[in-house]
Write a structure and sequence with these properties.
Length: about 300
């Protein structure tokens, strides 16, 4: 059907993979109803809101050497088992780039690759900062979760984390759970906001992590901390929505025990749609990652 529609519309051969992806999504959204000619003719306009994943992955494949070099560079800065670190980082980078490439449709893919490079360089710099230097006393950085209130710090962090304007209801004055990085080298003490979660009761509306701190378990800690709060209130489950191509978030949520309730296409999402996920609060309590202080929640 997609090939027939492409022939009818005269879709150029180079654009057919993207057309087929849009066609499949529109067909799923229509839930069995026949797609109108108007919807089919507007397929190219859908790509102005979000790229086809197939186009982003094609760009990624053409630049895989660049991505591998970035992963190796960051793994070397972090130390440890370099081979396993490179493999893990490469998967994270691929997921992050697809996420950015699909949803930042107004930014050239080469520009997004440079943005990813900048994030990796910041990650490597932070890893070096967290290593003790000769003659320094004190404890390394640790992470602490605490109640907070949404302000400009959270807004700026959200701009860093998302390559688009997310459909979040959190705003000035909203209650949040913060993740703070506590630095303690040389007997000094300072706190840096590295992530936060905003929720409406049992529904998480906004989960944001500083991209320069990815891979540290911050997102997991925030979700588990929220789940722990609700478990105390005798709530059995929590839910949230995630965009279909937000692979970093999907992987994290599934690791925490979230199950897909349905794929849907709400008005606040693009043509890719998204997933409604649900988890048991007891599972979130049990999966709380080590290395985080939850005592203030």
């Amino acid at each position: 059907m997609a090939a027939e529609a492409a022939d009818t519309l005269g879709v150029p051969e180079a654009q057919r993979p993207a057309f087929e992806e849009v066609y499949a999504a529109l067909t799923e959204r229509a839930q069995g109803s026949r797609l109108s000619e108007r919807h089919l003719k507007a397929w190219a306009s859908e790509l102005q809101d979000a790229r086809a994943e197939v186009d982003v992955r094609a760009h990624l494949e053409a630049n895989v050497g660049q991505l591998q070099a970035l992963a190796a560079e960051c793994a070397a800065a972090a130390g440890g088992d370099r081979e396993s670190s490179v493999s893990k980082l490469l998967r994270q980078l691929e997921q992050r780039f697809v996420f950015m490439g699909v949803y930042a449709a107004d930014v050239p893919l080469d520009g997004l690759m440079e943005r990813l490079r900048g994030e990796l360089q910041s990650m490597a710099a932070r890893s070096r900062e967290e290593q003790p230097r000769t003659g320094e006393a004190g404890s390394p950085c640790a992470f602490r979760l605490a109640p907070g209130v949404f302000d400009d710090r959270h807004r700026q962090l959200r701009k860093l984390a998302y390559p688009y304007t997310p459909a979040c209801g959190s705003e000035e004055g909203s209650e949040v759970i913060e993740c703070l990085r506590e630095d303690g080298w040389c007997g000094t003490s300072s706190s840096t906001l590295v992530g936060y979660l905003a929720a409406h009761g049992k529904y998480a509306d906004d989960v944001t992590v500083d991209p320069r701190c990815q891979g540290r378990g911050i997102g997991k800690a925030l979700v588990c901390g929220w789940g722990t709060q609700l478990a105390r209130e005798k709530e059995a489950t929590v839910s949230l929505d995630v965009r279909a191509c937000n692979y970093p978030a999907l992987e994290m949520y599934k690791a925490l025990g979230f199950q897909v309730l349905r794929k849907h296409y709400p008005g606040f999402y693009d043509w890719h749609g998204g997933f409604r996920l649900e988890a048991k609060t007891a599972d979130l309590v049990a999966r709380a990652p080590p290395g985080f202080d939850f005592s203030a929640l």
